[in-house]
Amino acid sequence: MVEHRPILRHDRMVCFDDGVDRFQMRAAAIAIRNGRVLVQNIAGNPTTFLPGGRIEQGEASADTLVREMQEEFGHAIEVGDLVFVMESFYPDRSQLFHEVSLYYRITVGDDFPYHDTDICHRCFEGTAEMEYRCVPATGVALAAKRFRPAALRMRLGNLPTTTVHILDREDI
Looking at residue 9, what is its pLDDT? Predict the structure, then answer.
């Protein structure tokens, strides 16, 4: 007998749940200024990550970044090279995630929010308040900010010149 499970889709996002597992595709921005990288977190949650979001069906991943940065900052960006392609497997709450993330270098204008030591921007995504800050692009500083995925911590300070594929298994 074949078990049938309902698949929960999330609007037009490339994301689906089968009850236990979730698959999603995400695009994220690597914005570096003065040796610092832009990271975000949900207010009250110490874990930080690169800004971006889920890719929508029919949307190019670079266009996802343009859309997300416009929604979150109200600023246009220039999307550069694809730096990392990461396949991640990790538990979160009661689900096991399989996430494919595309990390792009981006260029922002001089008027883009920036602060060396404090939160440089806040916004809401639905009911979640997001905080953005620029932290040193070093493994030590990113570890102190509980940056995820951990596999990128040592790589953001010295970006490669060609695209690198990373397989990250936190569920093992």
Answer: 55
For 8-169, which CATH class?
alpha beta
Q: How many CB atoms neighbour CB 163 within 10 A?
A: 13
Q: What is the spatial distance between Cα 155 and Cα 145, in angstroms, rounded to a whole number?
A: 15
How much is the pTM? 0.90
Torsion angle of alpha carbons 15, 37, 111, 82, nearest 10°?
A: -50
- The burial of 29, by beta-carbon neighbours within 10 Å (0-12 exposed, 13-18 middle, 19 or more buried), is given as buried
Query: C-alpha angle with apex 78: 107 to 46, nearest 5 degrees?
Result: 55
pLDDT tops 60 at residue 4 = no
Residue with tokens 């102190």: 144
- Say how far apart CA 89 and CA 135 lie, in whole Å: 26
pLDDT band at 13 (very low <50, low <70, confident <90, very high): confident
User: Among the ranges 17-21, 123-127, 145-149, which has the highest mean pLDDT value?
Assistant: 145-149
Q: What three-state secondary structure class fits 170?
A: coil
Q: Quick one: 146 exposed, middle or buried, by C-beta within 10 A (0-12, 13-18, 19+)?
A: middle
Please give the Cα distance from 107 to 32 (Å, whole number). 8
